[in-house]
Amino acid sequence: MPRPSLKDQRSGQILDAYLTCVARFGLEGATQERIAAEAGVKRPLLRHYLGNREDMIAALATHVIAAFAEVTEALEAHFAATGTPAELIDALFASGDGHDPRLMLAWQALATAAQNDPDLSRKLTQSYAEFLAVIETVLARAHPGAPPDRIRAAAHGITACIQTIDALEPIAPPATWRTDLKAAALTLATCLGGQT
Amino acid sequence: MPRPSLKDQRSGQILDAYLTCVARFGLEGATQERIAAEAGVKRPLLRHYLGNREDMIAALATHVIAAFAEVTEALEAHFAATGTPAELIDALFASGDGHDPRLMLAWQALATAAQNDPDLSRKLTQSYAEFLAVIETVLARAHPGAPPDRIRAAAHGITACIQTIDALEPIAPPATWRTDLKAAALTLATCLGGQT
DNA sequence: CCGTTTATTGTCACAAATGACAAAAAATAC
DNA sequence: GTATTTTTTGTCATTTGTGACAATAAACGG
Questions:
Q1: pTM beyond 0.85, yes or no
Q2: What is the spatial distance between Cα A29 and Cα B97, in angstroms, rounded to a whole number?
Q3: Do A26 and B163 touch (CB under 8 A)?
Q4: Nearest-CA residue of chain B relative to A122?
Q5: Residue A6, pLDDT score
Q6: Domain A60-191: what homologous superfamily?
């Protein structure tokens, strides 16, 4: 019988290196040389496991969207039925926990490249919408009387704070910025009950 | 005497095309071919007016930071001494007004590339901080009793909403998202008075 | 008209990225 | 040990990006 396949393991390893490079250099800056160096393999292996450049981008998009969905599902599992918005915010802003800034940076890079790719654009929009939906669910449960408009707005604002945290990461922002963005998210989450 | 110099005009024209390409393809994806095509000039002109690749990036960074500062100063001139936070939010989210989504996208692209360029990183951080400061000034004037922490947090949240609007632009988000993000910013601006 | 300065175009060489294929090495079943 | 399949490496041509220089065209003052 054949030699045991390392396809899954190697593919994951290369995809992770790809993710790192995209987060650091952007989508066009993530050359095969850099990816191979980051992954610690020879360049032809990239083609062997993930295909040509187009295939690699598609694989990365699938990976990022899947990882995003995983985060979303984990949040839903933990907070959809129980837990306060404050706990949700705590979990979202817990640094290092299960949260990977590379994911959002790669998401942004893909979004930039999606301007001429309606299908990718649609997938990214959907993944973002699903994330929003979970936040809305938690907020709506904590504030039954709040109007849907306010719930939606708060969910968008909270998500924007999270997104901005990761987007600012490359310029090494002052530590207070992180605190302030978390506080802003918390304000949005708790202010729903304060004023109708 | 010499032929009249078009340096300023041409430089501006090329820089604008550069900005467009960076917003669409990212910093590494903005090749000289694309820039020249976008600007409607031959490629060697880029070198003639802006220098080599490194010079071009520096020129773009200067341009983006200057444009950002211009927006900041305009805001300060209009709202620092008078005007409500609600009017500020209205101005910030007025589409097409004087606001150019390419600017924020290029800012992000530069930020991504600034990971190995401490000087650029510092300049970007500073431009962002100055923008924040103006928002804080307006909020503090409207809510004299609010603690500085809350003011800072609100300013960060509002800025995050603006940043996210532009960052989502490439994927052509639903119209409600824009409305919701503006509503979130408005909530942050007005919620300061509601609860101490 | 002439000279000077600038704009504009053309062209070359060099480096980097990518795509594609061939070949060697390794591991497992039989 | 042999065959088979997979991994891994090596190497080529093609394309693209960049840098640098030369040459032409144009505008203005004298």
A1: yes
A2: 33
A3: no
A4: B171
A5: 66
A6: Tetracycline Repressor, domain 2 (1.10.357.10)
